[in-house]
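Reading a protein record of the kind used here takes only a little practice. To see the layout at work, look at the sequence and tokens printed below.
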Amino acid sequence: MQTYRPDIDGLRTIAVLSVILFHVGYSQFGGGFVGVDIFFTISGYLITKIIVEEKCETGKFDFFRFYMRRARRLLPTLLLVVAATLLVGFFMFPKDLTQDLGGSAVYSLLSISNIYFWLNSGYFDAGANLRPLLHTWSLAVEEQFYLVWPALLVGTLSLAASGRKALLIVLLFVGCGSFLAGELLLNGWGPTYIQQLAIDAETTTFFLAPFRMYEFILGGLVLWLPKLGPKRSLLSDLIALTGIGLMAYGIFFVTEESKFPSYNALVPCLGTALVIWAQNGRFIPVALGIGPMAYLGRISYTLYLIHWPATVYYGFWRAGPLENADRIAVLAVTFVLSATVYHLLEKPLRRPTPKRQQLNRSAFGLVCCFVGLIL
């Protein structure tokens, strides 16, 4: 049974703040982009837990309900941000940038923007700061994960007599295969025709979902770890502290020049999994779950979607590198807009109250499709 864990929202806060502070130009957060990898590991844990527990407890899994919940969580804010980004770009950008923005918007709405940017750029290319929807590549990877993961888990649990044990073997096999495939590509060890298809090894392993799958699986594997001692356990705190240290390695010591994803993504993902596992600690889980940390984690999706277009457009208007005052302005706009969108759009549609009329499934789907087609 799913129970709310504020410490996981605290992990989301670390992830999203790392990404935002990296993008606005704080050099201390040179590896802040690994916040995306932290998000992937959190998602792997939560989604695997939802699927495995429902299947094991009830003997079945409601695919339609699962995908409707994901849609209510992701689509309304994404549609709003894409619409606002297109509108601002139409008036602010020259023709060539507007055309590129339109292309990335279409791919974003189809959940394949990672493929668009794989074919057209690298994440750290000089022109990346003129692509307001570049950050949607990670959302596309996550949605592709949602597409295949339930079928894989439910199919394995249904067909294998040993159930969870067989699923563990499958996860280990897929996870190791995902990581090793990336290493082969990055080191040029694969067959020549594979290297040629990859276009650019670093860009391929960065953007494409198969080479990121192990990050989700690391989170899912937490379900098979033995439960740690009683509540307020010192051992749990030591494990969580080790995890925080591994995450800090990625955030503060990985750079744009580092070999990536590779072990530089594996390390913070492993740290995230350790923190999730060590939920019985006396200090670390409590610190992660305090009010401001948990709140920022709850609005982290909206923060992530809004911060990059705000940064790109402000930088384009500024026509130069951001100074400290500019960074503060971008951060302020991002937090105000994100809190507003979360409370007025995301939260009401995701968790409607009894007093508020809820769109039924058909109406919600039709409205999202209609808005998407207009965009």
